[in-house]
């Protein structure tokens, strides 16, 4: 892809070169090559299990065979007091923090010690049945005398929301007598090994090990009151701070299978109460130890998932344990031992004691997920994707996770989806707009459940409104678990009133997208709509002079602009919210009936006069646009703020700078104007997308990952095939799988998952929902191979597939679907609607170039854009080779001549490569000096004496040179690039060097023009042949979706070895003068090939020499050259006093 639109203010979301996880069929596995340096918390979070009610997070062990799992529950929390020092209702008295219900440990103790792992376990998550498994190929005793394998499997039921099960299968037991004999003979004071039986004779027949298979349930007594817990079979917990109760019922068994029988071991029960415990998580500590309002990023105690900075106090814990003891001897070696554990947890109420087998649970889930995957699919393939299926894996994983949590949406969706505790178990209602759009268009039933969770929160929202001195209505909290706000706010401005409008937008979309809605649900949604809308008249005021209704000092979702008047997002969303509420009321009156509507109005205390005022106020809310800039301002005074001109900022802003410092600068986190354009596209023109994107993308900090999706989606809508939003979208899609911003300890980011889907479907798919119709207007950004997604609309499922040639719509399920393509073509797909012939698929060709312009694309060799890049390359190689020569001079006591400029040009620049990149030129230089180095690999360190080792050292040297000299693109090329981009010409940049991105980093203005790039790293990975082959240019043309015959190429050093037939596939190839070569070698005659077929046409050239002083600066000048290349070539030839073309 291109370089994206990174700015000085933007937070880095760079994807690692190697993915952490891989797709194996429908399973996610951790890559073995990254396991050594990737934190186990990343894998723990990705591989966790949930059904939206229970979350089980396995804690990776790489040394022992212990299996430890933390259990979280949706809606289960502790209350933490807040020290406000002032007695005021404006301050919170306490906040709700998600609780860890318990920890479950399954272990195998061999003679008092946990079994040791010989290698790291292989961990796998199957997205077909939601099972997690971990396979350990070798578990050994302390003395090495006993060895076996362990296979762990865990599943959280998607049907029974209180249930989860796990089992460990120990198999392939073997005894190693030699290990025991060695242990006995070693220098042990007492002469015994860990597995010694205690008898004088230590031969293999008497070798014995006491193996304890244990299941332990651990509860923190600093947070929980153990109301009932005589054994781990039944436990009742009550929170010491919130009085929330959790009932837990477990069933544990240990089945031994031998060659001729199988039997269950009778367990031994044990209860231990202690301060501190060997199984305690280093990052989980009592709520009382942490200030819940501390948002300082540098304070580890405020960051869930990070180690406690100071001394960890002793934590009181109770361990409820079952031991299954078995003695392994040569006469009683089992074939298999299965330790099974089943548990049910419930927040209040009785719990069933009947447990299905783990296999039965898995079978039911496989059927459920097969149905899910049959109607939901999303895929996106990039052309420069080095790791196969990297994006597909991330998209499937996100869809899988969003499905799992959807099983319990009626209780709300925690921020991290039950993958972590504390703040991560709170509901972030600001993310609900992304969740609501996702579920409305993929699973309407889940969207309704999400709206029901908001309705269940309505009594608390009414209380919140009363606390704000509002007479009626509802104000929803931003962060909550039980319905009370868990974020500080001192006034009306930052209470999150924009959530009301977003809830109204979701209700409006739901009525449009769903065909059949039950009467009770209609009443519920209408009540929710009216209660959220009636807040706006109370928080605004009339301006008598101009009759406008103002909503002053009310903040939108962007916290970096939270204290200013005239917020654009608030004005627009409130205006449309009031209008939609009145329209919905009028639409539902005949459907629900007058009696039902009257009863509802009476229930909420609303009069008809209040409803009629909705229209008046909506019409008098004025949304202003800056006429001078043609953009919508975040708030009334945004254009008067200072630009951020200090050093590169620290992220996130909110944890590194005082709020007043942020408010004084022109910076945004969530770009509210762009978000409004995505939510209410019918209110804007196409030019609004272009202008506002150009204004807000450079000043976006991207501290909230969702902002990546917003900017990417608007970019796709504004620039279509020329969009540069893919780097943003890639980072957002893989945010959790690749731990892009190192937040694995805080759990998964479900807001990022939903917003990434929205960016694809609304941005690339061009999906737009009106009151009556579904609209699609897909685009196909450069750098993609294919985009596929499904969505639900009024009982039918539509699959959209986009590639460079066509757009295909397919009816996957349902009888009929109607939609509008490109805002003008109405399409009806059906399976035989009213005796008509079935029409379940339609393919629409992509619009192609009209052919009236001279060319559609251009590819630039990076080195041709700079006056001195080849010279910098020479000096970088010179210094690296001199370091090598110095070593060889001292070692072999002989003279080794230094690299000369003429030699570098002749042997390195003009060296022909007949395969991939092999540094043959440098190799020949070394051979001339009696030094023969192997090629090596790209991973060779700079000090390794291989050609790749030297090349890596040269890349580092080049980076130092570039950073000190900051070379700039030639002004003529800068002007040409700008004009080509403004004329909608697809542009790509290529280089055989890995310094391409370094050079472009110091030329951001030029880098923004390119839609695709290929550097030396990608050339190596894809085995792209080096010069004189043109493979790198052909590959670049494919990336920008242009026919080579309609593409021009700007390169250098084309006067030797190139083949006419390869050059002829392009519209024209320019050989840009290299000033360094001219300085060293002088101006030489061009020796370029021509086609034999074109000799009759006066020898029309395939290559034109382009002197630096003759570089065209406009597309008009370039087209003039293409129209009459012979004249231009002749002029160039006379200027160089040479011959311009030669047949080969």
Automatic annotation (TrEMBL):
Q: What is this protein called?
A: Glycosyl hydrolase
SUPFAM superfamilies found in the cross-reference section? HAD-like (SSF56784), Six-hairpin glycosidases (SSF48208)
Record-level GO BP terms: carbohydrate metabolic process
Domain Glycoside hydrolase family 65 central catalytic span(s) in chain numbering = 438-758
Give the species. Answer: Trypanosoma vivax (strain Y486)
- A Pfam short name: Glyco_hydro_65m
Q: Where is the Glycoside hydrolase family 65 C-terminal domain?
A: 771-824
Which molecular function term from Gene Ontology is one that the record holds?
A: hydrolase activity, hydrolyzing O-glycosyl compounds
Q: Which InterPro entries match?
A: 6-hairpin_glycosidase_sf, 6hp_glycosidase-like_sf, Glyco_hydro_65_C, Glyco_hydro_65_M, HAD-like_sf, HAD_sf, PGP-like_dom2
């Amino acid at each position: 892809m291109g370089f994206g639109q990174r700015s000085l203010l933007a937070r880095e979301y760079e994807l690692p070169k190697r993915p952490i996880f891989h797709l194996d069929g429908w399973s996610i596995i951790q890559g073995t090559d990254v396991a050594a340096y990737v934190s186990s918390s990343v894998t723990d979070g990705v591989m966790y299990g949930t059904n939206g009610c229970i979350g089980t997070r396995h804690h990776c062990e790489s040394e022992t065979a212990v299996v430890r799992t933390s259990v979280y529950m949706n809606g289960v929390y502790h209350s933490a007091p807040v020290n406000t020092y002032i007695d005021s209702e404006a301050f919170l008295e306490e906040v709700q923090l998600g609780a860890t219900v318990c920890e479950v440990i399954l272990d195998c103790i061999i003679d008092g010690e946990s079994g040791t792992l010989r290698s790291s376990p292989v961990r796998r998550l199957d997205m077909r049945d939601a099972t997690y498994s971990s396979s350990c190929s070798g578990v050994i005793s302390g003395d090495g005398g006993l060895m076996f394998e362990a296979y762990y499997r865990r599943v959280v039921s998607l049907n029974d929301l209180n249930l989860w099960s796990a089992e460990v299968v120990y198999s392939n037991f073997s005894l190693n007598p030699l290990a025991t004999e060695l242990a006995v003979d070693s220098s042990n004071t007492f002469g015994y090994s860990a597995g010694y039986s205690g008898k004088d004779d230590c031969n293999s027949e008497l070798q014995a090990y006491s193996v304890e298979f244990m299941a332990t349930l651990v509860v923190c007594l600093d947070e929980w009151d153990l109301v009932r817990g005589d054994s781990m079979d039944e436990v009742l917990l009550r929170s010491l701070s919130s009085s929330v109760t959790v009932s837990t019922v477990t069933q544990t068994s240990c089945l031994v299978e031998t060659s001729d029988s199988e039997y269950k071991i009778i367990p031994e029960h044990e209860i231990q109460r202690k301060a501190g415990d060997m199984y305690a998580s280093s990052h989980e500590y009592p709520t009382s130890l942490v200030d819940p309002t501390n948002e300082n990023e540098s304070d580890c105690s405020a960051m869930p998932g990070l180690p406690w900075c100071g001394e960890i106090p002793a934590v009181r814990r109770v361990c409820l344990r079952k031991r299954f003891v078995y003695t392994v001897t040569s006469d009683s070696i089992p074939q298999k031992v299965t330790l099974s554990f089943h548990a049910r947890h419930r927040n209040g109420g009785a719990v069933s004691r009947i447990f299905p087998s783990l296999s039965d649970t898995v079978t039911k889930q496989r059927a459920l997920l097969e149905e899910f995957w049959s109607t939901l699919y999303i895929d996106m393939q990039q052309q420069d994707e080095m790791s196969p299926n990297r994006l597909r894996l991330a998209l499937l994983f996100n869809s899988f996770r969003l499905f799992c949590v959807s099983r319990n949406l009626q209780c709300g969706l925690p921020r991290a989806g039950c993958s972590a505790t504390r703040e991560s178990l709170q509901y972030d209602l600001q993310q609900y707009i992304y969740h609501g759009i996702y579920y409305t268009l993929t699973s309407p039933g889940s969207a309704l459940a999400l709206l029901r969770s908001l309705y269940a929160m309505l009594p608390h929202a009414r209380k919140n409104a009363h606390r704000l001195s509002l007479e009626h209505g509802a104000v929803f909290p931003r962060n909550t678990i039980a319905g009370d706000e868990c974020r500080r706010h001192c006034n009306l401005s930052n209470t999150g009133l924009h959530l009301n409008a977003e809830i109204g937008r979701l209700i409006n979309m739901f009525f449009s997208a769903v065909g059949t809605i039950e009467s009770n649900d209609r009443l519920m949604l209408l009540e929710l709509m009216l209660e959220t809308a009636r807040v706006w008249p109370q928080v605004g005021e009339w301006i008598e002079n101009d009759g406008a209704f103002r909503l002053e000092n009310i903040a939108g979702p962007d916290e970096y602009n939270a204290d200013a008047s005239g917020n654009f997002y608030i004005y627009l969303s409130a205006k449309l919210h009031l209008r939609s509420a009145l329209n919905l009321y009028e639409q539902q009156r005949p459907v629900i009936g007058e009696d039902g509507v009257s009863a509802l109005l009476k229930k909420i205390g609303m009069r008809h006069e209040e409803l009629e005022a909705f229209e008046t106020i909506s019409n008098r809310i004025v949304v202003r646009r800056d006429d001078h800039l043609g953009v919508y301002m975040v708030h009334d005074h945004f254009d008067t703020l200072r630009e951020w001109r200090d050093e590169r900022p620290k992220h996130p802003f909110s944890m590194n700078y005082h709020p007043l410092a942020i408010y004084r600068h022109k910076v945004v986190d969530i770009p509210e104007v762009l978000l409004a354009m995505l939510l209410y596209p019918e209110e804007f023109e196409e030019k609004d997308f272009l202008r506002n994107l150009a204004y807000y993308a450079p000043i976006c900090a991207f501290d909230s990952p969702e902002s990546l999706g917003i900017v990417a989606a608007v970019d796709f809508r504004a620039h279509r095939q020329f969009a540069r939003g893919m780097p943003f979208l890639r980072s957002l899609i893989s945010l959790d799988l690749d731990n892009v911003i190192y937040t694995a300890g805080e759990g998964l980011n479900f807001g990022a998952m939903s917003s990434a889907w929205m960016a694809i479907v609304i941005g690339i798919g061009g999906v737009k929902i009106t009151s009556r119709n579904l609209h699609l207007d897909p685009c196909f950004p450069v750098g993609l191979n294919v985009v596929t997604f499904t969505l639900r609309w009024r009982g039918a499922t539509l699959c959209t597939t986009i590639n460079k040639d066509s757009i295909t719509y397919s009816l996957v399920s349902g009888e009929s679907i109607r939609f509008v393509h490109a805002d003008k073509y109405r399409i009806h797909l059906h399976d035989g609607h009213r005796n008509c012939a079935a029409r379940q698929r339609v393919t629409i060709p992509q619009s192609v170039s009209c052919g009236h312009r001279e060319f559609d694309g251009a590819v630039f060799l990076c080195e041709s854009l700079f006056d001195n890049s080849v010279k910098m390359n020479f000096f970088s190689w010179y210094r690296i080779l001199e370091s090598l020569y110095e070593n060889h001079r001292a070692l072999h006591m002989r003279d080794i001549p230094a690299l000369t400029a003429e030699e570098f040009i002749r042997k390195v620049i003009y060296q022909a490569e007949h395969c991939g990149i092999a540094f043959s030129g440098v190799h020949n230089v070394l051979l001339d000096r009696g030094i023969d180095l192997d090629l090596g690999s790209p991973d060779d360190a700079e000090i390794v004496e291989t050609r790749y080792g030297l090349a890596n050292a040269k890349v580092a040297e080049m980076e130092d040179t570039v950073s000190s000299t900051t070379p700039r693109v030639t002004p003529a090329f800068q002007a040409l690039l700008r004009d080509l981009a403004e004329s909608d010409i697809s542009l790509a940049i290529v280089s055989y060097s890995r310094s391409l991105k370094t050079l472009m980093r110091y030329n951001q203005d030029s880098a923004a023009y390119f839609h695709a790039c290929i550097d030396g790293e990608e050339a190596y990975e894809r085995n792209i042949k080096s010069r004189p082959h043109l493979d790198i240019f052909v590959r670049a043309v494919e990336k920008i979706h242009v026919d080579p015959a309609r593409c021009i190429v700007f390169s250098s050093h084309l006067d030797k070895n190139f083949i006419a037939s390869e050059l002829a596939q392009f519209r024209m190839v320019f050989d840009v003068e290299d000033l360094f070569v001219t300085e060293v070698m002088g101006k030489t005659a061009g020796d370029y090939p021509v086609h034999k077929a074109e000799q009759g046409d006066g020898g029309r050239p395939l290559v034109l020499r382009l002197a630096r002083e003759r570089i065209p600066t406009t597309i008009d000048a370039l087209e003039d050259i293409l129209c009459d290349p012979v004249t231009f070539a002749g002029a160039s030839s006379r200027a160089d006093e040479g011959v311009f073309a030669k047949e080969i």
